[in-house]
């Protein structure tokens, strides 16, 4: 595909889409029903529908029977850990292999023209972003993912929580599954702002931001504390009336759904004239500029709070002005607290 029909490339080879990033037409006033109807297919396909189906697949073919899960035992816990690890490896590696190892698209639709493997850095284990990111995902991310999954399934098997059946409550559970991405977005925005506070950023979130030029494995390259916070939304299903499939969907949306936002390409080519949009641009800009786009755009939190960056020159100017005011406040504070040496 000719990516220059959809964007521009600068002298460094970095690609930028022609259209500024947009947030979903939800939670806007006045309401825009036609825009919502036009946008709805993007809400379902391909990612949310895929992760909902994967949650059903886990429930049908991976999760043990209720009687087994009533007791915590190494057998079924290690089984879930193994399946999750294999699934994560295959899903993440599929993107990594095509886009970053074989480089089948070259730099078409790639925001940052450089490939992480070409720029070793001491901030990563073994000076390799790809190896560092993969090891952090598999050694910390998957075990914490599995631990929370085991806890919720054990609670379900022991009737801890308000669990509903699809046969008795199909309407509410369907609505709940529609709300799962909104729950994820809200939780993600709140914990993301939290871990951008100076202390937590230094000791926790900076691990994730080492990947300024993110690639698929960067998705789950986090400090264990961030992994715990990131996967925590599954615990909401112990409180709200829910079903194990909805809880698994919540987990899969976080675990598998992180990849599109970190893939580093605006579109993933499937053929000569066919490509799937990654919806990665908003989060790519967060990795690039750090203090913008704390959410992914499903809910316009960043627009409401003045931290949205759509990639345009106007947004760049607003961001620089916000930085200037921040520096001015810090300098004024330092001046006010500095000892008076005039005497």
From TrEMBL:
User: Which UniProt keywords are given for this protein, alphabetically ordered?
Assistant: Membrane, Transmembrane, Transmembrane helix
Q: One Pfam family from the UniProt entry?
A: FA_hydroxylase
GO MF terms listed in the record are: iron ion binding; oxidoreductase activity
The subcellular localization recorded is: Membrane
The Fatty acid hydroxylase domain extends over 178-307
Q: Which GO terms describe its biological process?
A: lipid biosynthetic process
Give me the Gene Ontology terms describing cellular component: membrane
Transmembrane segments in this chain: where? Answer: 43-61, 73-95, 137-157, 169-191
Q: What is this protein called?
A: Sterol desaturase
Q: Which organism is it from?
A: Rubellimicrobium thermophilum DSM 16684
Q: Which InterPro entries match?
A: Fatty_acid_hydroxylase, Sterol_Desaturase_Related
Main localization of the protein described in the UniProt heading:
membrane
């Amino acid at each position: 595909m000719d990516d220059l029909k959809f964007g521009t490339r600068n002298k460094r080879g970095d690609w930028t889409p022609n259209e500024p990033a947009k947030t979903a037409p939800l939670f806007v006033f006045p309401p825009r029903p036609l825009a919502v109807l036009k946008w709805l297919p993007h809400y379902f396909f391909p990612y949310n529908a895929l992760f909902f189906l994967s949650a059903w697949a886990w429930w049908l073919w991976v999760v043990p029977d209720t009687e087994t899960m009533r007791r915590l035992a190494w057998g079924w816990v290690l089984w879930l850990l193994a399946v999750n690890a294999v699934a994560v490896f295959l899903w993440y590696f599929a993107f990594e292999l095509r886009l970053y190892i074989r480089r089948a698209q070259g730099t078409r639709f790639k925001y940052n023209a450089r490939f992480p493997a070409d720029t070793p850095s001491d901030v990563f284990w073994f000076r390799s972003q790809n190896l560092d990111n993969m090891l952090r995902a598999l050694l910390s991310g998957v075990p914490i993912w599995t631990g929370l999954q085991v806890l919720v399934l054990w609670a379900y098997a022991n009737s801890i929580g308000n669990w509903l059946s699809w046969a008795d409550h199909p309407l509410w559970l369907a609505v709940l599954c529609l709300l799962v991405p909104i729950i994820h977005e809200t939780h993600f925005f709140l914990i993301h702002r939290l871990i951008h506070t100076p202390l937590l950023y230094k000791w926790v979130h900076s691990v994730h931001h080492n990947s300024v030029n993110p690639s698929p494995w960067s998705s789950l390259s986090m400090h264990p504390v961030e992994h715990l916070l990131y996967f925590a939304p599954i615990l909401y299903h112990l409180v709200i009336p829910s079903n194990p499939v909805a809880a698994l969907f919540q987990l899969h949306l976080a675990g598998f759904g992180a990849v599109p936002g970190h893939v580093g390409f605006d579109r993933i080519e499937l053929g000569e004239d066919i490509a799937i949009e990654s919806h990665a641009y908003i989060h790519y800009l967060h990795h690039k500029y750090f203090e913008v786009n704390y959410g992914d755009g499903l809910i316009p939190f960043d627009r409401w709070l003045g931290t949205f960056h759509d990639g345009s020159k106007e947004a760049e100017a607003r961001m620089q002005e916000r930085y200037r005011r921040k520096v001015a406040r810090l300098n004024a504070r330092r001046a006010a607290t500095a000892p008076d040496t005039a005497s």
